[in-house]
Amino acid sequence: MASKRPRPPRQDVSPQERDLFLEAVEGTVTLGDRQLAPLPPRRTSARAVAVILDRGPPPPAPLFVEMEGDRYRVRAAGVSKAQVAELASGKVHVAATLDLHGLTAVNAAEATRGFLGRALAGQCVLVIHGKGLHSGGLSVLRDAVVAELMGPSSGMVHAFATAAAKDGGEGATYVLVKR
Question: How far lies 6's CA from each of 3, 51, 60, 155, in Å?
Answer without folding.
Answer: 9, 40, 55, 51
